[in-house]
Every structure is written in structure tokens, then in C-alpha cells.
Design goal:
Helix content: 10-25%
CATH class: Alpha Beta
Number of domains: 1
Number of helices: 3
Oligomer: single chain
CATH topology: Thiol Ester Dehydrase, Chain A
Strand content: 35-45%
Structural class: alpha+beta
CATH architecture: Roll
Radius of gyration: 16 Å
């Protein structure tokens, strides 16, 4: 299984009064990793991007330990845990060598913004999902 890894920089403004990165920002870190990962399956024009969009349907986050503000980035690892004809689930770990800060999952729906309806994954998108999925044993 391939994991996509994004080294997410922290900003001073991410810290709360206790010096911890605010837990709501973990959603932003996941979004940044996911959007960079999805650059592998871009549409070529605006209409293509509207017809071949993805929307977030569900998010579950388990916070493990506080992430203190620091100059070093935190790594966000992303991979696919399951998929159907029109959806897939991504798993995330936000960590460094010493700590696992959070684990999360998101459900992603293939969506046509023009029609306002879900759609099936294209062949290229299924290949993208397969590249980051666990092999079936």
C-alpha cells in the first residue's frame, strides 16, 4: 500500500493560549494533504473540474496527544481504506517520529457540481484509488 505524505508547516497563529495547535486545525491539515494528493487526478478545464469534483461526506477524528507549536512541520499520511463505485474512504495519521497526534477518516464522494448529484468514479480515478489502497489478500 502506498501512503501519500504531506509535510504540513505549522503557523504561529495555529497555536492556542496553551501553545497547542488548535484541534480544529487538524481538519485543515487533512484538507491540505488531501488536495495535494488529489492533484494526481486533475481535470483539464473548469467544466471538467465541475463534472469531476469530490465532496467530503463524513469526518471522524481521534485526537491522541496535543501537538505543541514548533518550527518543524507535522507529517500527514493519507491512504485509501475502502472504495465503492462512487465513494472512497481515506485514513490519516498526523505524526512525527515520536508521536501520533491524531488519526482520522474521511468519506469522499465523487460528485458532479453541475448537476448537483453523485457520480461514479472514472477509470483514472479508480486507478488513483487503487494506487493508495491496501492489496486484497
Amino acid at each position: 500500500m502506498n501512503r501519500y505524505t504531506y509535510s504540513c508547516p505549522l503557523r504561529w497563529a495555529d497555536a492556542d493560549a496553551n501553545g497547542h495547535v488548535n484541534n480544529a486545525l487538524f481538519l485543515r491539515f487533512m484538507e491540505e494533504a488531501r488536495t495535494r494528493m488529489f492533484r494526481e487526478v486533475p481535470a483539464t478545464d473548469e467544466e471538467g473540474r465541475r463534472r469531476n469534483a469530490f465532496v467530503l461526506a463524513r469526518v471522524v477524528v481521534d485526537y491522541r496527544v496535543p501537538l505543541d507549536y514548533r518550527d518543524e512541520p507535522v507529517d500527514v499520511h493519507v491512504w485509501v481504506t475502502e472504495s465503492t463505485a462512487a465513494t472512497f474512504e481515506l485514513a490519516y495519521e498526523m505524526r512525527d517520529d515520536d508521536h501520533l497526534y491524531a488519526e482520522a477518516t474521511t468519506t469522499i464522494v465523487a460528485y458532479n457540481l453541475t448537476t448537483g448529484r453523485p457520480r461514479r468514479l472514472s477509470e483514472a480515478e479508480r486507478g488513483f484509488v487503487a494506487r493508495y489502497s491496501r492489496p486484497v489478500s
